[in-house]
């Protein structure tokens, strides 16, 4: 008999006041008893609507069934058949808009907590150290550029099919946004390392400090590889273009989060990268990046952190859980507000921000209601740190050094729909480099799809 409890089994979490002062993980994970209780809420529906909501098609009812039976390592293996980074997806996927949105239990009550169960199975499976699958070499070589979720999932899928895979990563640590963007308290870096180690154990070769376009161009790589995949992400920060953005104390969210997460400024002076955070910080934007920047600013000692967002609460694009956690931790929100100028003091540092109130007009091209400034509503917000989190564009170096690679006006690499082929023969692309800033699982889905297409191309060759 299924467990007909209407609500999800609650997730144990660190206390909001305590966690505002540390970088340890906020959500603590299910115990085995909680996981089995939650798994028993699944009805094992024959038509599996949840699976259709998952961009990589995880066999959700099957892995949940293993948890019901206490077969946790098997649950992990079932997930790994289609998802090479389950401990990460279980933590950061926007499940409420994907698998859980389609769950039948969500019609009357809350959906099954699929993400939490995926996290549980992955953590258990990794503890049990499931052996890597046997691989039959096929003698062909593929270069993967970028080691974010797109590159890693492409590399894992190709390796499983027997390809020798070299991943070229520009930074000194692999993982992309998973290591330089998403903070430790949401996604522990030891766990990302473990996931990457399991790819290495399969034979994926990851080369760091290799900026493609500098140490070698894409064309040069193609001379020694049978095919290539570009998963170089969207790491070029955007600014509003308002006066004062060059003042001291103004950061792009990318720089701010990279200093804190990748360079571990939160553990200064054990790690030598500093980051200056004042008492009153403002974060401009409303996505996951803005929530992460705000919650990091709080943990770095800011006494008052305000998210300034030009639309309303209903339009916030961040994951529901991150918004909830940010509120619990005391982050303030100023909705329908847009900065127009950042004001500096004589010392060259930020002292305030001029803002204007907004109202929502007719829907724009994105389908969301367009924010319009209310005349005469200007006001000044005293702040000493400003973090700009209004979006990122694709990294431009590879297109700049590959004349035949077609890009969109806004910088995204052009790919053929359905095949992810670029304009350069034998080269495929996916993830944020193609779509602009999106999600981990969409990037992973693209990496996997590209691996299928590369396999098709090279099997016919
Ligand atoms: P990336 O993760 O950006 O990886 C690209 C990699 O390519 C990087 O490591 C980069 O160094 C490398 N690279 C770039 N150029 C070169 C080059 N020339 N040579 C070699 N290497 C190169 N999504 C979610 O689903 N849930 C979340 O909660 C979430 N939170 C986020 C929080 C933050 C702060 C940010 C920034 C993003 C967040 N996202 C979230 C979005 C998600 O992380 C991205 O959509 C995803 O990481 C994109 O994967 P990718 O592999 O395409 O690119
Ligand atoms: Fe289980 Fe929900 Fe998927 Fe049905 S839709 S199989 S109840 S997780």
TrEMBL record:
Keywords for this protein: Oxidoreductase
EC number, as in UniProt: 1.4.1.13
Pfam families associated with the record: Fer4_20, Pyr_redox_2
UniProt key word Cell wall biogenesis/degradation: no
GO molecular function: glutamate synthase (NADPH) activity; iron-sulfur cluster binding
PROSITE patterns documented for this protein: 4FE4S_FER_2
UniProt keyword Oxidoreductase, yes or no: yes
Domain 4Fe-4S ferredoxin-type: residue ranges: 32-64
PANTHER family assigned: GLUTAMATE SYNTHASE [NADPH] SMALL CHAIN, GLUTAMATE SYNTHASE [NADPH] SMALL CHAIN-RELATED
Name used for this protein in its record: NADPH-dependent glutamate synthase
Underlying gene: gltA
